[in-house]
Amino acid sequence: xxxxxxxxxxxxxxxxxxxxxxxxxxxxxxxxxxxxxxxxxxxxxxxxxxxxxxxxxxxxxxxxxxxxxxxxxxxxxxxxxxxxxxxxxxxxxxxxxxxxxxxxxxxxxxxxxxxxxxxxxxxxxxxxxxxxxxxxxxx
Length: 139
Fold this sequence. Notes:
Glyas_Bleomycin-R_OHBP_Dase; 139 residues; 2,3-Dihydroxybiphenyl 1,2-Dioxygenase, domain 1; VOC family protein; 2 domains; alpha/beta; four-stranded mixed sheet; 3 helices; 8 strands; PhnB-like
């Protein structure tokens, strides 16, 4: 049996925008279920009707990211248990370099994508939604 690990991110009301952004960076297929559209009978909170109950991006590279908006009545900080999403490839991977540029647009660079002491190119950033990413390009 194969097991997969799928990171699931929570957002304070902008999960749909974040998922669309990740699709523009990573490519792939996006499925989004809204509280008031797809689950109206079970989760009828009118203030949450246009929020994402569950979204899943199956990226072109074969991995998956899931996301939701905070649940009705939930005000927890979506990034209090901070994680970093890592992308890795070879030094010649221009697609990964292009993804880095898209991720840092409107975000912040914590570690510039450049050659590190261990020989690989590596960088870390927070995208415009506050999600941490790392990119590693092996020599």
